[in-house]
Amino acid sequence: MSDFDYESLLDRARDKIPDDISNRSRWKLPEPDVLIEGSQTILRNFSELISMMDRDADHVYQFLQNELGTSASREKGRILLKGRIPPRRIKEKIVSYVKMYILCQQCNAPDTSFIKEDRTTLLKCQACGATRPVKL
Ligand SMILES: [Zn+2]
To answer: Domains of the chain (ranges plus CATH)?
Structure first.
C-alpha cells in the first residue's frame, strides 16, 4: 500500500459506475480530518464521514478501533484514538470499510443498504439489485 491514495482509490471505484448511477448518487466522501495531538489521534470529521457513508456510527467506530488495533472514545462528532496514528492509515481503513460495507461488488455503486435474511445480513444494491453477504 505504499502508493495508497484515497482520492484515486475512490475515483477508480467511481469510474466503474455507469454515468447515470454516478450522477444520481454524486457520492463523494470527505477527506478524513486527522489531527495528532500528544499521544492521541483525533478524527475530527467523523460525524461528517458517517453522514456521507450512511452507515451506523457505532459500526464504523468499532471497525476503526479493531482495524487500527487501538481503543478510542467518542466526543461529540469526533473520535479520539489512542496512540499516534498516521493519517494515511486512517484513510486506508476508511477505504476498507467503504469497499467491504458500502460499494456494490457488481456495479460499484455506493447506493446500498443492509438487509436481514434469516440470520445473515446482506448488502443490497439499490442500483443493480445485487446482494452479497456481509459480516457485521
Ligand atoms: Zn450494484
So the answer is: 6-104 (3.30.30.170)
